Amino acid sequence: TVNEGTSRSMKMAFLFSVTLAIIGGAAGWLLWTSLSNQKGPGVGGLFTALFFGLSLGLSGGLTSGGMFAIKHFVLRLFLRTYGVAPFQYTAFLTYAKQLLFLRQVGGGYIFIHRLLQEYLRSLQSRS
């Protein structure tokens, strides 16, 4: 389906973020309690756990698909802002498919008519 890869990347990034945030938070908490001289974990332990958890969660989420999803959204936003493509790109591609301009191949699209593809390519080379 359309945008399946982006959706999968966002899910994977979320799962990695949450998992690594929990692991990082637990590690920060344990580090603070083992190194501090206080009897209880206190506010410092909470801040250390939050720092480790958020740092690990954010970096894990970005490296496991989050950065791809952000780039994808920003690209679509720029294309829409400059009037090059509609923001609801999926609906546009579905409409082009219904008009038999495009054919869906997996998660992508190809032109059905070779002459249309060559004409559009010639427009690009003229400008």
Spatial strand arrangement across the major sheet: 1-2
Radius of gyration equals: 23 Å
Shape: rod-shaped
Q: Total strand count, please?
A: 2
Q: In which range does the helix fraction lie?
A: over 70%
Low-confidence spans: pLDDT under 50, at least 5 residues?
none
Structure description:
The structure is a single chain. The protein is mainly α and 127 residues long. It is 75% helix and 6% strand. The chain contains four helices and two strands. A two-stranded antiparallel sheet has the order 1-2. Strand 1 and strand 2 form a beta hairpin. Helix 1 packs antiparallel against helix 2. It is rod-shaped. The model has no long low-confidence stretch (mean pLDDT 86).
Task: Give a quick summary of the entry.
This protein has 127 residues and is mostly helical. The protein contains 4 helices and 2 strands.
Topology:
Elements (H helix, E strand, L loop, with lengths): L3 H32 L6 H40 L7 H10 L3 E4 L2 E4 L2 H13 L1
Antiparallel strand pairs: 1-2
Helix pairs in contact: 1-2
Structural key phrases:
mainly alpha, 4 helices, two-stranded antiparallel ribbon, 127 residues, 75% helix, rod-shaped, 2 strands, single chain
